[in-house]
Structures are given as C-alpha cells and as structure tokens.
Amino acid sequence: MGRTIGNVALLDLTEATEESIASITHIKNVALLLYTAETASLVPKLSIGNLAQSLKIKEDMQVINGYLTVDNQYLEHAKINQVVIVNGLLVFKDDIQFETIKKSTCAFIVNGVVYAPTSLRGAVAPLITKQSGTTLGYSGPEPKIISGTTHLTTEFVKGLPDQTTLLCNGKVMVDESLDIDVYRKKLDMLFVNGKIELYEHHVSTLLANATVNGTTHTIPTNFKRLEKTFHLSNRSIKRFKQANVYTATPLIFEKDVTRDSLDQAFTSIHSHSFIFCHEEVEDLIYEKLDRFETDVYTYSDQFLFIEKETWHQERFSQLKLPTTILVNQHLTIEHPISSQHIHNHSIILLGDMTVHDQETKAVFQQALVENKGRIQCATDVQENTNYAELSL
Asked: What is residue 136's predicted lDDT score, i.e. its pLDDT?
C-alpha cells in the first residue's frame, strides 16, 4: 500500500534508501529537500508535486528546521568551517561584534528570511553563502517570534517593548479597534509569514512598516468578521440583521432559509471562501456578494457538508432524497460502491476522497458536478499528512 503525503517543510533524504522511499506514492508539496551525493539518485524516483528548493549537503552540515537565533557566543564557539542549513527564519542578535564576524568561518544556507540589526546587515552578509528568501534589517530589541495564530489587539501590542520587530509565522488577525497610536509606538516592524487579515482603515498605516510573505485579506470597514464556519437555518439566521459580514470560512444555508429571511439578515457578504445554499436563493446570494471571485455552490433537495468522515455502503441507503454531497476536506469510502448506491446523488469535491478500488473511483467520478480535489484508491493511499520534518 503506497503513501500519499500532503505538505513537508523539510524532507531529509540524507540517509534514505531504495526501501525507505518505496512506499511513497506521491508528496504534494516540499519546501526544502536535502540529499547527499550518495542519495542523489533517489531524488528523481520520488513523485513530488511542488518542490521549492533542493540542496546537496555534506555529512558535517547542521540542519535547523524552524528558526535559529545567532548571537556573539554562537559565532565564537561554532566549529571551524561549520555549515548550517536553516529552513525558516535566521535571526542575528544585536550583541554580535564586528571582529567576531570577521573571524568566523561559520556559513549559513537559508531557505527563508534572514533578520539582522540594521547596523550589522552588511557585515553578516558574507556569512550567508546561499539564500532563497530575503534579508531584512531591524532596530530596537531582538525580534519577537510567534508561531500559530496571532490576534493583534491593543492590549497585546501594549505588552510589547517599544520599537519591537514582530515576526509571526502563521496567521495574523488584526482587531478592528486596534489603537494605531499604540501600534506605532510599540512596533517598529511587522513580518508575517503566512496570512494576515486586517481592516481597510488600518491598511495604509499598518502595512507601511510590514512585510507579508503570503496572503493579505482586507476586511471592508464596518464589516463583521466571522471566525468560523456558519450553518444557518431560518431560525439561526435571525442573529444577523442587515449585517455586512466578512468570512474566510464556508457559509452554509439550510433549505428552510427563505428569501425574505436572507434579505433581512445580510446587506453584504465579503467572502474569501465559498457559499453553499439552496438553488432557490442562489440569485439573491449573488446580489449580496461583495467579491466577484467568491464561489457559490447549490443543492436542490438535501445536502451533506463533509469535513472529515468515513462512510460505509449503508450510509448511502440512508439518503432518501437526491443529495448533494460537498466534500470540503476528506471523505473515506471503505466498501465498494456501485452506481446503484450513488443513484441520483451528486458530489462537489473541494477536498480529497479515498475509495475502495478503481471501479468505485469511476462511479464517483461520474457523480461529480464540481471537481477541485482528488479521488484516490485505498490501494494507493495510506495517509495524507503534513510534516514539519520528514526523514526517509
């Protein structure tokens, strides 16, 4: 049984063998691949969808996946001719002396961003022998590094030292009421490696001293941000009254939502995700949309919204009416399925499906009304996992 792997930040093939890679069917995305002269012949034998960078390394090279902070003591005590590969962020501290840099034989290969004090930016450049990314200078305190989701609120910013350089690896959500005066005092620079959501009235000020390596979503002023997937019925939709809403997650409308309820609930919808609704209100949804690019999917009788589920044959017999099945993340079908099981159901595939065999795959392919994902057989798939670091 082969393995399909999702995303790998660092793929280490330095000790790989024919046997260790034999079970890998496909890897979707790899940020950095490392190999040696001995394992170079194995690289073309791997099926990789997108490969950002590959490096041939020697045995004595050190590999850091994430971020590395280098101070004066680090450079003083590094091994002679030490080569360090950094997949992520490399930060030079402001205590580094010019004399230490001149004497150092340490070399860095960086797949990502380098931060150095502005006064040392030129001096440390010779230490970086190869880089895929950019080098940025900072002044003030050493950069503060945060991974995951960062809520940029006034209270959070107040707790930072003056003139902080803030490095966010993941998602940044800027609070609508963020005090810009406090922000200017506390943050010298903001760097986002991932995604940032901010309001229109913050764009000119906040982005003036920010670098975004990823996606920027701008929320119109006076729009309410929805931070989760909403399943709205004719009853629950009443929480909204002529609302302007922003969302980066799906917005799902039950069949009982009337045109009048929908019209009373929303004035405008600014969506960076998609909307799933009954076909009777589709035209009204389009009238409410604030973005032309937003996808709208519809159903006619009943629907099922799938995040991560496993189904058996019996599950299809429970569907009494023609059903539109929207697979947003992953659906596993464990038993063989014939066209009789599918009958007049339809599938919107935005994620992935794992099916029992090739015959079942053909059945589901015929039922697709929208395909932005992938159907795979269980004989070819074992996992669809993301790895920060994977050694084969």
From this structure: 81
Tokens of 97: 């002396």
* CA angle (107 as vertex; 106, 108 as ends), nearest 5: 130
Q: What is the DSSP string of 330-348?
A: EEEE-S---HHHHTT-EEE
Quick one: which of 65, 64, 66 has its CA closest to 74? 64
- Mean of the pLDDT values across residues 10-26? 78
Residue 258 is encoded by which pair of tokens? Answer: 């009337």
pTM of the model: 0.70
Q: Given this model, what pLDDT does residue 234 score?
A: 95
Owner of token pair 């890897």? 27
CA distance 68 to 110: 10
In 10 A of CB 46, how many CB atoms?
A: 18
Give, in order, the Cα–Cα distances in Å from 359 to each of 104, 231, 335, 384. 62, 34, 11, 22
Residue 110 near residue 127, CB atoms below 8 Å: no
Contacts of 188 (CB under 8 A, 6+ apart): 138, 139, 140, 163, 164, 165, 209
The pLDDT score that the predictor gives to residue 189 is 84
Query: Which pLDDT band, with edges at 50, 70 and 90, does 137 fall under?
Result: confident
> Left (φ > 0), alpha (ψ -120 to 50) or beta: where does 20 sit?
alpha
The residue with tokens 């004497």 is: 103
Q: How far apart are CA 90 and CA 315, in angstroms?
A: 51
Contacts of 98 (CB under 8 A, 6+ apart): 120, 123
Q: 3-class SS at 33?
A: strand
Residues listed for the chain: 392
